[in-house]
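Entry 14. Structure prediction run on the chain below.
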Amino acid sequence: MFFRTMGGFADRDALSLLFILGSFYLYMASQHTSRFRNQLLLSFSSGFVITLLGLTWEGVGLFVAVIVLCELVHLLLDKSDQRQLYRLTCWLMPQVVGLLTFTRTYHDLSSPVTFLTLGIPILLMLLALITSISKKSSHLRYVSENS
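Output returned:
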């Protein structure tokens, strides 16, 4: 039997696993850190590692979907606030910029890979923005009615 690495083919599975675990660790650390500045920094770092994973492997959307589901649960349970919107922005920004700048894989917007990797997180971002605006407007309406 002739192994792929002996034949000169690089095996990227170990690198992909490192990026997967790193991005999940940084995402979870951002959720459990008390200082807001550290939350933003860890969220940005998680997004950057996901960008590296996306440059390494096109199946990154499967792991992005896990984080999107966690954020969606926060939105549905009404545990979201303005800080979550900022964390989500810091998490998504390096992915969109990095994946659209450094590779052509994610330029076809009709592709399922692109939709899962970039489309669904952007839709979640828009949903979080709408939720934040509606909470703020309902709070302002409540304050003006009780004044």
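The chain has a mean pLDDT of 87.
Filed with the rest of this week's runs.
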